[in-house]
Structures are given as C-alpha cells and as structure tokens.
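Data card: per-record layout.
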Amino acid sequence: MSSIKKGNYVSRKSHQNDIIFLVDKIITKNNQKIAILTGIIERVEADSPLEDLQVVDKKIVRDTLKLLDKKIRNRLENNLKYIKNKKEIFSRNIHVQKQNFSNKVITGKILHLDGDKKYSEKSYYYYKKVGLNAIVKNVPEYKQPKIVYNLLTIYKPDILIITGHDGMIKKNIGYNDIYNYRNSRHFVNTVKEARRYDLETNNHTVIFAGACQSYFEALIIAGANFASSPARILIDFLDPLIIAEKVALTENYKYITIDDIASELRDGKRGVDGIGSNGKMTQVYI
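The structure for this 286-residue chain is written out next.
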C-alpha cells in the first residue's frame, strides 16, 4: 500500500482491474489515504483507497498506450482521403465558379479545452494531421469556466470543445445531483460562460461538453449542442475529437445531427447525444 505514489499507473482490485489509471494525487480523507485517479485511455476520474490499488506492469501500460496510438493512426489513415475528397467536392459544387476568382475552402475553427495534458497533446496532433485549424489548451476542469470567455474573445472559434475527466461519485444514484459528478458542474459553468460570450457578440459557437459519465441533461440545458454521457458510461478519448471534426468539415448550409456521427463513436448515442448544429465549413473567393 505505501508503495503507491503520485505518477504511478494502477488499477483497482475491487473493479477486477478493468481500467488503468494514473495516480493524479493522494489526499487524506477521514484519516485514510485516498488516491485521485484519471484514466489513461478513457476520460474518467475516480478515487480509491490506496489498499485497493495495485501497480500495473510497465509493459501492460506501454501496450495499452500503443493501442490508443494505433486507434488514432487508423482513424487518420481512413479519414485523410475522405476529407480531401470532401473538400474538393465542396469546392466544386457549393457555387458556380466565378470568373477571375479562385476559391478557398475554410474548415471550422476549433478551440479545445482539455483537463488532461497528455490528451491535449494527442488531440493537437490529431487535428493537425487531419488539417484542421485548431487551438488546444490544457486547462484543469475547475479553471475552464474562469478563462473560457477571454479565450473565445481572443481566438473567436466556430467550435468549442470542453472536456477532460469526469465521473459519478456514487453510481446508479443521484443522476440529477450536479454534486454527484466530479467535474460536470465545471463543464456546465464553462458552457454558460461560452453562451454569454455568444449572446454579447452575436456568435453561434457549436459546443461539445463533457467526459466520462458526465451530467448530459445539465450540459444540454446549459447550451451545449452535443454532450456526454446520456447513459452515464465511459466515453472514448476520440469521441470529442470526432464531434469537432464532423462539425468543422460539414458545409455551413447543412444541419448535422448525432445520427450523422453516432456510427463513428465507440458507444454511439449512449456515450454522446445532442440537439445538433449547422456545419462550419465555408468557401470564400479570392
């Protein structure tokens, strides 16, 4: 038990060692040492007494992270040709070509706030490989409501991704208690601040908000277009990125719903749902 330290990779014996976590910090609660944990391939936060934890073999950790990298590479390989063709078709078909002008396709601009530093880095890598205009900021969940307005003012994105880690504190009860979620209240407040920005600037930012087991209904009521997690399940690392990508690459005259995206999400509409939005891909003449 005493060998568990911040930065260790661990699993929980009481949960059949089903998820690999990083020990984010260790706190004392009721004279007991408690580890605050974040998933290494899923956007979940949890806590656990130290005695319930066991250190995961480094090879297993490496292999698990390699699987995540492989999933990212596979999606990139499958998507790059599709994205190129989509841009070309949009460029040809949206308007009759104007004489003496060249046209340029502009995909939606993304601002992505992520509470996990390593996920931030992987997200930035993914967006750049896909060729999207994205700014990714590693911001702890509790700080996101405090800085989102200023970031929106600076970057003026079309799409805002608000994510990190989350989780229900007591499972199967308290679905409508915002304090039964580790970070949902921070995500909700961030959405509200983003909608305040929209109201004051007459913008229509498309918002995804949430992480694993997040309070879906509260996020939608706050103003998110898409959110997790209707079934209070774990969501995949890629899910928020897929939402951002689809909105950024959908023509601005088309309305995109979760039905257009669900098949590409690991758990479909059980993990992510929402009211939808118009796409953010446009064309300008130069």
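Known properties of this structure: Helices lie at 58-93, 117-130, 144-155, 184-201, 216-222, 239-248. The mean pLDDT is 92.

See the next section for split statistics.
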